[in-house]
Write a structure and sequence with these properties.
By secondary structure, this protein is α/β, with parallel strands linked by helices. The protein is 40% helix and 17% strand. Belongs to the LamB/PxpA family.
Amino acid sequence: MVIDLNADLGEGFGIWTLGDDLALLDVVTSANVACGFHAGDPVTIRRTCAAAVDRGVSIGAQVSYRDLAHFGRREMDVEPEELCAEVLYQLAAVDGVARAMGGRVSYVKPHGALYNRICRDAEQAAAVVDAVADYDPSLPILTLPGSAVHAAAAAEGISTVTEAFADRAYTPAGALVPRREPGAVLHDVEAVSARAVRMAVDGAVTAVDGGTVEVRARSICVHGDTPDAVRLARAVRDGLLEAGVVLQAFA
């Protein structure tokens, strides 16, 4: 069993800090670096990429809707050409910084509302895939199992990697429970760790209705902006290692 452990990092902006990026980089194997559209600024992106390179952590471009005011968690209707261009812009910016720091972007993970939208919206999924194809078709896209991204990416010859969320609630259909609903984000350390182990070992998770959902994934995410994010991530890492799971980046 080989699993990647990823977290959203570099989500500060200006004088505002969010999460403990350095501590999380000592835990995870992949870092989804904010590209400046939902969070992140040039200095934050540079520091995060440099720290990831120092620790041998894979860097991913966490592209988003252009929505600083709502942290990229507000769904937006963006024309496909515009969305493609905005994703391309973000990807090129973070990859340029990463390369200057001695690394590179090795995958793409959409953020927030864009992530959820392109799981079900084939048109917007295709726009994101087109941006990746324009920039570097060797970059895989991280997404949910069953996402519309898989078909769009296959049509362009882009690879996809499935992920699961240790600290998020699931619907019976295998989607993430919207954040506006109670219980959408999980904070109990032992419960989150146990869910991650079950995801890795059994490829399953308990949905909000008590049923079982299949979530076969190569990567497991722990959000970096939640309270006690570092403690949660460490518990997930420890639980996976104790279960005999090998932690290794997918890219």
